[in-house]
TrEMBL record:
Domain of life where this protein originates: Archaea
Lineage of the organism: Archaea, Methanobacteriati, Methanobacteriota, Stenosarchaea group, Halobacteria
Region named Disordered: 1-29
Descriptive protein name: Cyclase
Matches recorded under InterPro entries: KFase/CYL, KFase_sf
GO molecular function: arylformamidase activity
Source organism (scientific name): Haloprofundus marisrubri
GO BP terms in the entry: L-tryptophan catabolic process to kynurenine
Pfam hit, one: Cyclase
């Protein structure tokens, strides 16, 4: 199995304007005889999933999706190397020729190596047509960067192309770590959100494992 999540801590970088992550002691063994930690974070902290309600006023929240929706037959699409602020086109995805049996395309841009630096904001993005291409073929999308849209985008066209079609978006995956060098091209991805009611997103623990899907497709 492979853990594809960034650890959460008080130093976890967040998208500008989002709530910071805070991990503080609430009770301690020394003072209280037990330990409880006060956790504070936004719904889009760290490695997380976006629900349609993230950008659509009447969109479905995460609680509208069955838990099975977060166990996915995933296919790694290695797009490296990509330039700063590159646009991922429909043609690039067509060239990758993902299996129609895949449920999730994991787009590897290589940008997770900049996690926690200013360069992370210069990540590649999906063209609106490429996002629609994924959604129309029934693919959810995961990326190793902050967003399928360019940093600072006001209208978030790739988000809309995916979420308006009720596809899920998983952001900030960790793929470039050397311990993930043997990650297969196809795998089962488990990415379960916290069980909150009516939220627009949630941190997820993204774990890849070998599966029959990887062997037979």
């Amino acid at each position: 199995m492979w853990d594809l999540s960034h650890p959460l801590s008080s130093t976890t970088p967040v998208y500008p304007g989002d709530p910071p992550v805070k991990v503080d002691p609430h009770a301690t063994h020394a003072d209280d005889g037990y330990r409880v930690t006060d956790l504070r974070l936004g719904t889009h902290a760290g490695t997380h999933v976006d629900a349609p309600s993230h950008v659509l006023e009447d969109g479905d929240p995460l609680s509208a999706f069955p838990v099975s929706r977060f166990r996915l037959n995933a296919e790694l699409v290695d797009l490296r190397p990509l330039d700063v602020e590159a646009t991922i086109s429909t043609a690039a995805l067509e060239t990758a020729d993902p299996s129609p049996k895949s449920e999730l395309l994991v787009l590897q841009t290589g940008w997770d190596r900049y996690w926690g630096t200013d360069e992370y904001h210069d990540h590649p993005s999906l063209s609106p047509d490429a996002a629609a291409w994924c959604a129309d073929r029934g693919y959810d999308v995961a990326l190793d960067c902050a967003s399928p849209d360019p940093f600072g985008s006001a209208d978030l066209p790739a988000h809309h192309a995916l979420l308006e079609r009720n596809r899920l978006i998983f952001e900030n995956l960790r793929l470039s770590d050397p311990t993930r060098s043997d990650l297969p091209d196809r795998f089962r991805l488990h990415a379960y959100p916290l069980s909150f009611d009516s939220v627009d997103g949630s941190p997820v623990r993204t774990v890849a494992e070998r599966s029959e899907f990887a062997v037979n497709n």
